[in-house]
Amino acid sequence: MDDLDLYLRLAVALAVGVGVGIERGWKQRDEVEGERQAGVRTFALLALLGAAAGLTVAPAGAWPLAATALGVSALIVTLYFTSQREDRADRGATTETAALLTFVAGALAGLGEVLAAGVIGALMIALLDFKDELHALLRRIKAFELTAAVKLLLVAAVLLPAMPNRGYGPGGVLNPYALLWAVVIIGTLGLLGYVAFKVAGPQRGALLFGFIGGFMSSTGVTLNAAQEVRQRGEAATLFAAAVSAAQAVMFLRTALLITALNAGLLPHIAAPTIAGSFVAAAVAAFLFLRARAEPGASALSVGSPDQLKTAFAFIAVVVVALLAGHYAQLYGGEFGMIASAIVAGGVDVDAATVSVSTIFAGATSGESVGAGAAVAMIAALSANSAVKVGIAYFRGSAALGWRAAIGLIGSALAAIIALVAQHLLGP
């Protein structure tokens, strides 16, 4: 360790301690001198103590660091219980916990893990400073929203790691880990879309509903829009803008899901999905500007934040699509796979995405295989777009159907053109 490295470690430790101390001291600035809890000097010294203990590991081993950590912990615990005897004692332990974590960050800096120490310090200061915002957020969270987040966490952190990551069934196309991973991705996107909608506020109108709702289900947005238009036909243009906005997000969501499941397919699918998303977004903006002269839509709901039930339900569709795709590819080659992708895409784009990504798992080994996967995926997206036109027309109104078709069919054609151009101009 040279002198520059030593100074860097001590500087990072000191910065963490001073930063936390300033935040804690500022919160207690109105208290009488002598009655304040730990401030700038205390936290700075704790961080430097941790750094010094961390520096002793190289020449003396881990026991000095362990002994110092035990001593600091005992001191902080003693001070906490002593302070609780006071009449106006704060029953929380935030400052004490911050003191322990400051020592840990200092020790990490002393050990040479300056990046980890800096990140921990920055996150700690942010959490301490955002007390009011976090408490306000807790007051706004409803029970069913918290339940949805906890269920998603259980699936992602408990069930997913336990799933075997290998193929089963005909052709080994049924991978439990990949299937559940897709559920986690869809559930996470749905929850993030719901949170974004809640934060932005429902009064931003149908266009925001389309963009945010597209993260959950573009088909769901179309169904919602059709139902609203049956009651308020004068808002058909505005709701068509929402459908086009959701379509734009659907293309991007598909690219994201493909990247997570089979990154080797992304180069083959990137240009078509970007083209489709761009056209749909442009149509959404055009329709929104046209609709400003018409009566606007009232506050809309994107449904429940809990998308796990829907995500698990689509697993059955995925399994059928995977098996059908395997046999279609086995007996019909790429044309058979494209046909099965069209059927799956008409039912659920995510199901078709998982099916294509899994069956073409070897796309990185051949350009033609990747191109076939891209054709199958764009065929599925086009089929889904056609189904949504039918939903808008027959479940909503002719006005909604024709307006929505501009964005839905237009974006599908743009994706097809981009795919053909990519094939013609490619190597």
Task: Identify the notable features of this structure and list them briefly.
single chain, 427 residues, 2 domains
Question: Can you summarize this structure?
Answer:
The chain has about 425 residues and is mostly helical. The protein is built from 17 helices and no strands.
Structural write-up:
Helices cover 80% and strands 0% of the residues. With 427 residues, the protein is mainly α. The chain folds into two domains: 3-136, no CATH class; 142-425, no CATH class. The protein starts with a helix and ends with a helix. The relative contact order is 0.09. Residues 296-300 and 362-366 have low confidence and may be disordered.
| Relative strand content | under 5%
Shape: elongated
> Could you say which structural class the secondary elements and strand pairing correspond to?
mainly alpha
Poorly predicted runs are 296-300, 362-366
Sequence of secondary-structure elements = HHHHHHHHHHHHHHHHH
Helix content: over 70%
How many domains make up the coordinates?
2
If you average the pLDDT, what whole number results? 78
Main sheet specs: none
Distance between the termini: 51 Å
The radius of gyration computed from the alpha-carbon positions, rounded to a whole number of angstroms, is: 28 Å
Number of strands: 0
Summarize the SSE layout with pairings.
Elements: H1 3-27, H2 40-55, H3 57-60, H4 63-83, H5 94-110, H6 114-129, H7 131-140, H8 143-162, H9 176-200, H10 206-216, H11 218-231, H12 236-261, H13 266-291, H14 308-347, H15 349-359, H16 367-396, H17 398-425
Helix pairs in contact: 1-2, 1-5, 1-6, 2-4, 2-5, 4-5, 5-6, 8-9, 9-10, 9-14, 10-11, 10-12, 11-12, 11-16, 12-13, 12-15, 12-17, 13-16, 13-17, 14-15, 14-16, 15-16, 16-17
